[in-house]
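Lecture notes, unit on protein representations.

Consider one protein chain, 143 amino acids long.
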Amino acid sequence: MIVKVPRDLWARIRRQLETGYPYEQCGILVGRTLGADVEVEAIREARNLVVDRKADRYEIDPHDQLIAERDLAVDGRAVVGYYHSHPDHPARPSETDAKFAWPRTIYVIVSIEKGVAKAATAWVLRESEQRFDEVSLDVEKTE
């Protein structure tokens, strides 16, 4: 599986996550599944509702999720996944990420070190267990 993200959207994700440092920031990936691959066509920034541990936890505001789902129902696109930052931590899923993840959903994690995006990875939760498989993340040139 390859998760394809246009370069302009990737720049917006990076800017949001770097600007929100040292707190975890999050958002919604919108697009289409084409065979085994996923093409991201838009992003929706989302509010992180976590207050007490916002440096190492996130929870997407359900209102932001509902608005994204409602707006997408009319044009054939769907929520294909989510992205979030790991401030001063590796771009690997945590136990908390696995606990709250949904199977067959893309999770992009970006490591933000001292306010700068350093590494990014994409993951899918296995259907039958709370374990992630890493998938390819391809930032494409915008035409």
